[in-house]
Write a structure and sequence with these properties.
The chain is of the alpha/beta class. It is built from 20 helices and 16 strands. Helix 8 packs across helix 18. The longest helix has about 35 residues.
Length: about 575
């Protein structure tokens, strides 16, 4: 066994959602702290957090839709287990002894993957639960992968309080990623926003929508980048066209690092690297700091591109053992082996002519038989002229067939040439792959910048395409929306079109709006529209309105028509009471 494949450790793109991360999670409890660590082995993304509030923690677990979780075998939490088994559906739960979550062992294995500086930022003396969870995740990876994956080389700690809180109820009722009826992507806010050209850009955009910001400066920075790209129509189209030429460099890097990348993966990386110089040249026309930082983050990696151009054929085969993936001229030994196979006929003709001249037997010929192999054939009338070094191989009615040392050596060379070619190509391919794996940090850095760029360009395209405006985001207490529209509903084929509307909320006389009207009047649409516009603004997107001023919001609650939630053992009535109580308490 060289590697164990589990639901949380999949790297085969055919078994992954292109625009969605596939996380393996670790959960540990120390004192009042709930530690959460999750890793996407296909990209190397590794994040951790520690949460004291149990309900917040459970919402955070649900938010990511983990495919596989590592737990302590003595951790007994009925609600958490119910959430994992029912709310997350096919999530696989693995239980391990407490020593898997040992603090010192966790710090040791973390030190083998990330820098001391990165570990210090986790504050291990203060946040023991997240350290235990992170250590268990890495140990599980090492046990299953039988090696230390080089692309897991950084770890990021995030604080949920730095983001607008969207619990599972809000995310579900606002239909951010899946519709409440049918669970489809079409008809969601993400579906409207996703004009990304790459899979990695789609994942980054999804992350932004999952975690709207609470930092006004960062929000404005994103908005400025979106505005800059939106304003240059031709530049935006050229930029998106260039982005469309990129493959999923994050996951390509992961496959290369783990050692499962094939020839087509390297060809895809080469195609992506070819795009980068032109892409950076396009970005040179944009001078705002955020775009300049992204441009600086894109490493063209010319030496890697040169290596791939010289070594890998244009259209390599799917499997490594097929051969035919290394260019001629890259390796002298491989070229010699190839020439034996390719130049067989001319070599035989040359040998035949040479032996005719040497022996004086004009009728001598060199041939091949699938049973007896290569031979020199001489008619019986000329056998007296056969040289002494010829060895009889077969007797026919009218001729004798021989072999000499030179033909015997050539036969062995040809018979083994195909096998040798495959072996040599595999050796060369592994060597090339390992050389590229040594530059994995550069690939990851560039991929991250490109994902940010693609997500930003997507928001710019949506803003232009659907006539969104730039919101004014501040630390104030006012939400003011002029001619607002519901971003999803307005995209539906409505015969009468969508009617824009205004909203004004503040801490003065407009703290609460009570919306009344008959069934199907649009009350729920109006309320969700306000939530969508706030979320869009705080993720750094333009919004569907003629104008908008958004004072920072730290949490969005929803209380929409309820149904039974079996995973939490709650009836319709209990769901309604629980959701209202949650709003009132917070």
């Amino acid at each position: 066994v060289v590697r164990v494949i589990t639901p949380g450790l999949v790297v085969d793109p055919d078994n992954l959602e292109a625009k969605q991360n596939n996380y393996l999670a670790g959960i540990a409890v120390r004192g009042e702290g709930f530690g959460l660590a999750f890793l996407d082995i296909s990209t190397g993304e590794f994040r951790v957090t520690e949460i004291v509030d149990r309900n917040f923690f459970i919402d955070e677990v649900i938010r990511h839709g983990f495919r596989e979780v590592v737990l302590e075998e003595n951790l007994k939490d009925a609600v958490l287990e119910t959430v994992l088994t029912r709310e997350l559906g096919d999530c696989v739960i693995n239980r391990f002894p407490r020593d898997w979550f040992d603090h010192a062992a966790a710090l040791g294995i973390l030190g083998e993957h990330v820098s001391a500086e990165a570990i210090a930022k986790l504050e291990p003396g203060r946040y023991a639960a997240l350290i235990a969870a992170a250590g268990a995740v890495l140990r599980y990876v090492r046990e299953t992968q039988k090696e230390r994956p080089g692309h897991i080389n950084d770890i990021t700690r995030y604080h949920t309080e730095n983001f607008l809180i969207l619990d599972d109820t809000a995310k579900r009722n606002l239909e951010l990623f899946a519709t409440t009826q049918g669970g489809t992507r079409e008809g969601t806010l993400f579906h409207v926003l996703d004009e990304t050209m790459t899979a990695m850009g789609g994942r980054r955009l999804r992350g932004w929508l999952s975690y709207p910001l609470l930092d006004v400066a960062m929000i404005r920075e994103r908005l400025s980048a979106v505005a800059e790209i939106r304003e240059g129509h031709l530049l935006r189209q050229d930029l998106r066209r260039a982005l469309s030429g990129l493959y999923d460099m994050e996951r390509l890097g992961g496959r290369i690092s783990i050692g499962v990348a094939n020839g087509r993966d390297l060809a895809a990386l080469r195609s992506s690297l070819r795009v980068l110089p032109g892409l950076k040249q396009l970005l040179a026309a944009l001078e705002i700091p955020r775009i300049e930082a992204l441009r600086e983050g894109i490493d063209e990696m010319p030496e890697i591109l040169d290596l791939l151009e010289r070594s890998v054929v244009d259209d390599p085969p799917l499997t490594l053992r097929e051969g035919g993936m290394i260019r001629e001229g890259y390796d002298a030994e491989l070229d010699r082996i190839l020439s034996v196979s390719r130049d067989g006929k001319s070599w035989i003709a040359a040998l035949e002519e040479k032996e005719r001249q040497r022996t004086g037997i004009a009728s001598l010929r060199v041939g091949f038989n699938s049973v007896f192999g290569y031979y020199i054939e001489v008619t019986k009338s000329r056998t007296a002229a056969v040289p002494a070094e010829y060895i009889r191989k077969q007797t026919l009615v009218n001729a004798e067939r021989y072999i000499n040392e030179e033909l015997k050596e050539y036969e062995q060379t040809v018979l083994h040439a195909e096998e040798k070619r495959r072996e040599r190509e595999y050796e060369l391919f592994v060597e090339i792959r390992e050389r590229i794996a040594g530059e994995i940090r550069r690939i990851q850095k560039s991929a991250s910048a490109l994902a940010d760029l693609d997500a930003t360009a997507s928001l710019a395209e949506v803003a232009e395409k659907y006539n969104y405006c730039r919101p004014a985001v501040d630390d104030g207490d006012t939400i003011e929306i002029r001619d607002g529209r519901h971003p999803v509903v307005e995209r539906m084929p409505l015969a009468e079109g969508f009617v824009p509307n205004d909203v004004h909320l503040d801490r003065g006389g407009n703290r609460l709006l009570i919306v009344t009207g008959p069934n199907m009047a649009g009350k729920s649409t109006f309320i969700r529209q306000v939530a969508h516009i706030v979320i869009l603004a705080q993720m750094g997107s333009f919004v569907p309105a003629a104008g908008a001023r958004i004072g920072l919001v730290d949490r969005v609650f929803t209380r929409v028509g309820a149904g039974d939630i079996l995973a939490k053992g709650q009836s319709t009535f209990m769901v309604e009471m629980t959701e209202v109580a949650n709003i009132l308490r917070n």
